[in-house]
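Morning run. Coffee first, then this:
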Amino acid sequence: MTGQKLRELICSVLQIDGSGLKDGDIDQSKLRVWDSLRHLRLIVALEKETQKKFTAKQIAQMVSYHTIAQEVGATRS
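And here it is:
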């Protein structure tokens, strides 16, 4: 998965316009819309897209673009 595709997926699930956001701005602590329900929806979407299953520990740590990219192995693009 490319970094751009990951950004698009995150923004789609969170229902935000990511055009003005930097990667560092995509963070659960910075986005009020990123609540627990949307977090679960995001994890489900990521599992479908990547064909990976995440552990509870991984899910708890996936709270920003950077941590998610690290878990899914997103590439720059």
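The chain has a mean pLDDT of 94. Good start to the day.
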